[in-house]
Amino acid sequence: MQAAENTQPSAASVPRPKTFFGLAQDAGRQGFSRPAFNDDYVARFPEDSYGQETAPNARAWRVYVEEAVAFDENVVGQSRDGLDVMLVFAGLFSAVVTSFLVQVSQNLQADFSEMSALLLHDLLVVQLAMADGGTVNVTTPSINPAEKFAPDAIDVWINGLWVVSLVTSLVVALAAVLVKQWLHRYMTFPSGTPGLRSHIRHFRFMGLEKWRVRIIIGMLPIVMHISLMLFFAGLALF
After folding, report:
1. Helix axes 59-104, 213-237, angle to 10 degrees
2. Neighbours of 75 (CB within 10 A)
């Protein structure tokens, strides 16, 4: 009896289950565990009869549809997540660039309020001199309204950089919207036989490869980085 009691593990030696914010990790993982995928198509789908290997309901088309759905969910799902983030970021960034551009674009034209203030100052100086009884020396005004306005080169550079940055970010947003619509159409399969669905899916996949949609999705972050660099370059000159 005493030997049996000595073999029982103490409370300090028993390993405690790992917890995350008070929840057992093993219990939390069970809720998110995915069921095992049975890829034994020989057991899942019955064997085709002789001469029906390419029929609309043949095993080959069913296997193709199963594999295509798994492949498309993986590839298109990752692309959709990246496009959603890119679309939100491009929209917010375009709004920020627009607010800056509205302010600096005023430097490309003459400031008529400042011009009016200078002319009124010259007129006030002349009137005060006449009121004191002194002589008035008619000189050239502080500013000539008839003179052609020429903006500073630094203002032209800032506006040019930020306009290009805004256009680039809007192009990224437009491309993201178009690609999302295309992917939504790509994942929509009509009802029908496995053979018909396989042909439609392959036709759309060939279009996906022909138009280099995945390359376009990969290029969008690069174009967005270029837009950011242009904005920061204009911000450094501001």
Report:
1. 10
2. 14
Spell out the SS3 assignment of the chain.
CHHHHHHCCCCCCCCCCCEECCEEHHHHHHHHCCCCCCCCHHHHCCCCCCCCCCCCCCHHHHHHHHHHHHHHHHHHHHHHHHHHHHHHHHHHHHHHHHHHHHHHHHHHCCCHHHHHHHHHHHHHHHHHHHHCCCCCCCCCCCCCCCCCCCCCHHHHHHHHHHHHHHHHHHHHHHHHHHHHHHHHHHHCCCCCCHHHHHHHHHHHHHHHHHCCHHHHHHHHHHHHHHHHHHHHHHHHHC
Beta bridge partners of 20: 23
Distance CA 104, CA 110 (A): 13
Phi, psi of 218 (to 5 degrees): -70, -25
Q: Is the pLDDT of residue 56 over 50?
A: yes
Model confidence pLDDT, tens digit, residues 116-164: 666 666 666 666 666 666 666 656 666 666 567 677 889 899 999 999 9
213-226 residue pLDDT tens: 989 999 999 999 99
- Three-state helix/strand/coil letters over 1-50: CHHHHHHCCCCCCCCCCCEECCEEHHHHHHHHCCCCCCCCHHHHCCCCCC
